[in-house]
Design a protein that fits this description.
By secondary structure, this protein is an all-alpha fold. It is built from 10 helices and no strands. It has 2 domains: 97 residues; 141 residues, Tetratricopeptide repeat domain (Serine Threonine Protein Phosphatase 5, Tetratricopeptide repeat). The protein is elongated.
């Protein structure tokens, strides 16, 4: 009878030890799996190598238990620690995935902005009408404004409207325009450009006038040519390019004989561009202040009419 009781106790003891060892093996497998997952996450977060990995805060403890002796409290504690480690691993994996998603969103937003900016810059470069006229009434600080002296031999100003365009093909129209040959290239170029403008052959007139203003900037006809270049643009329906030509003539050659005319027609170009009245009034004010005494009666009347239309103070 005693032998049977002892055998029963031994069987119960070995059963308890076997169950504890099974639990240890299961927990050990979970720990191994978690360690592999943590190393994978660390490689994704720190691609630089093992030197940048994060050391685990939960370190294995030295097992002081006697082999074969089960410890219920130790197993419960180890199970809780493994569960906490699993929760931390899942949280870190979720944070990594969220960071990658936000990075992709930032990259997509930046690429969209870059495409939009490139398209806007390309449109500005390709559209001639987007030329902006800088403050048209403030000359450079080192440019002295002197009222121009009358020419020794006054040259009649161009008519307010070009002459009637000649009939025939383009080639016939150009052939009908006489090209002067006096020996003065600047004088001849301006006279020929003026005749082309009168005939409303605007592209040819602009080419001739721009050549005179560029090649002979010190010649008195440079001011005439640059001003008439702006008139050719304005009459052809290109007020933006006309405004640039008028402003350039006034800025670069304020003492030129056609600088007052350029300021006057600059105001007309700004009106066609639908610029604010304040800008146009400033141009009229600058014209009257610098050149008022030398303006013709017709131009003075035009200035007063323009100031009234723009409600200048």
């Amino acid at each position: 009878m005693r032998i049977l009781i002892a055998a029963a106790f031994l069987t119960a003891g070995f059963g308890t030890i076997g169950s504890a060892r099974a639990q240890d093996a299961a927990i050990g497998g979970r720990v191994d799996r978690l360690e592999r997952e943590m190393r994978a996450v660390q490689r994704k977060v720190f691609p630089g190598g093992a030197a940048q990995t994060v050391e685990p805060q939960i370190l294995p403890e030295t097992d002081t238990a006697v082999p074969g002796t089960p410890s219920g409290s130790a197993l419960v504690d180890l199970g809780a620690r493994v569960a906490a480690l699993e929760s931390q691993s899942a949280s870190l994996t979720g944070q990594v995935e969220q960071g990658q998603f936000r990075l992709r969103q930032l990259e997509d937003a930046f690429n969209a902005y870059k495409r939009s900016a490139d398209a806007r810059l390309k449109a500005l470069e390709d559209t001639a009408s987007a030329v902006a006229v800088r403050d048209p009434i403030v000359p450079d600080a080192d440019v002295a404004i002197v009222v121009p002296k009358p020419a020794a031999k006054p040259t009649p100003k161009p008519a307010e409207t070009p002459a009637v365009k000649p009939a025939g093909t383009r080639a016939q129209q150009l052939a009908a325009i006489e090209k002067p040959a006096t020996g003065d290239a600047a004088e001849d170029g301006y006279a020929y450009g003026y005749r082309l403008w009168q005939a409303r052959l605007y592209p040819e007139a602009r080419r001739e006038l721009e050549g005179v203003a560029t090649k002979f900037p010190k010649h008195r006809r440079a001011s005439y040519s640059q001003n008439l270049l702006g008139r050719a643009y304005l009459d052809a329906g290109a007020p933006s390019l006309a405004a640039v030509a008028f402003y350039e003539n006034y800025k670069k050659n304020p003492n030129g004989e056609r600088a007052p005319d350029s300021l006057y027609y600059l105001a007309q170009a700004l009106v066609k561009l639908k610029k604010p009245s304040g800008e146009i009034c400033k141009v009229y004010g600058e014209l009257s202040q610098l050149y008022g005494a030398k303006l013709s009666a017709e131009m003075k009347a035009g200035v007063e009419r323009g100031r009234t239309e723009q409600k200048c103070k």
